[in-house]
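pinging the channel bc i need a second pair of eyes. not urgent but kinda urgent?? the chain im working w is below, pasted from the shared doc
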Amino acid sequence: MLLKYSVGVDVSCKSLKCCISTIDKEQKVKVKSSTTVSNNLSGFKSLIDWVKKHYNDPEVPLLVCMEATGVYYEQCAYYLHDKGFKVVVVLPNKSKKYFQALGLKSKNDKIDAKGLAQMCAEQHLKIWEPMDDFYYVLRHLTRHHQSLQEQKSALNNQLHAIQHSAYQSKTILHQMNQTIALFDKQIKQIEKAITEHITSNPEAKAKFDNVCAIKGLGIISVATVVAETNGFILFENYKQVVSYAGYDVVENQSGNHIGKTRISKKGNPRIRRILYMPALVVKTCQEPAFINLYNRTFERHGIKMKSYVAIQKKLLVMIYYLWKKNEKYNPNYGMNIQEKELVLPSLLAFEKGKNEVASL
């Protein structure tokens, strides 16, 4: 008796390596067939025809598993989802650890497709849901904004180095200043496009206004967080959001050994990057909920940056809370509720051999 059909798809820019497997009630995984199709519309149609050829029992569930390889998987994932297939998208580091656990020594596209099919067959993986069009466009805009900012910063650093060098070229300095001016112009244009896109959705605009009531938190910062999390649609609680952004706590303890406790940073780096400056500003603006957190954590360990990271974490959870509840930020009312929600069961630090529970 078969329990599940699973299709593993190893995605590259031009092709898709596919493997279809089955798992029975004795947990035995059997490979039925393998194929290669092009990563375009005609290839997707060929993939569906190939799957239907080997999918002999419609009553048995079938899942298609692929890695989140940049943007190359998106067209196939969206196409299969629109055709009614259940699609699973896993992070490459997760599949890599699984392949290592299987003892696979070699690596190529065919082996990866087979491994993904086995992984999907043996494990209970979460079904992928496509991003809403509004958030998908918003993500493109915010990521382009970040790219422009990073290029401008790199160019400013180069300009600073040339200006302080022994020999300077007026031509190079002139061109670099022109390029920086162009970046400034494009950044203003993309910020205007982000604002207009948000305004085009009245429901989202109202939520943005609620969150941006926090002094020091701007529309670009909130737009980046919301775009990277797809409007928090798939998150069931704040702990999942914290983990997704890489702010979850990692402990290092074994027997008598007590190592450093830190955030994992295994999550979306764009969220951590965009919340850096707002964390500094809300502290400067003396927002009660955040200044109290900063003072409390700084007294504990005396490290400013760790206290600012705690503020970043709290900012993220507060954005999640206000967005999901569709409530406007209130410094007094919000402080009590959000402090209670942010109590973590994880240990943040070991001090004098005693465990302390962090309330962020």
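so Residues 337-360 have pLDDT under 50 and may be disordered. and Residues 152 and 184 are 8 Å apart (CA to CA). — does that match what u expected or am i reading it wrong
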